[in-house]
Amino acid sequence: MSWCPGIPFSNDETALMARRARQMLPLLRDVSAELADLELPVLVKLGCRIDGGGPTDCEHMWFQVHGFEGDAVDATLINAPFRIARLQKGDRAVHSLDAAARLEHSFAGRRARASDCM
Q1: pTM exceeds 0.90, yes or no
Q2: What does residue 10 show for φ and ψ, rounded to 5 degrees?
């Protein structure tokens, strides 16, 4: 079971979100590159394994993207985890996009989400 503060997601829901996010990744990379001069934020929501949890026990958290590296993303955690002591708000690292649950690009305050396109 995946976990978000107060909102549990089933494994099937998490898998669907991840599949949609992976399908949108090429488009997000292209749009990010095309609009780089505008310095608009690019966000990814990643499912990270909770402390003491199994492979499908994850907390969904938002990261701001600094760049893409193959099937990974250089990103900074922008919210504080509830159930993952090893991560702190502001941590920057390269993360696999296998855990991506959602991808977003902000356009002048309006977000474009993968779920809007499915």
Answers
A1: no
A2: -70, 165
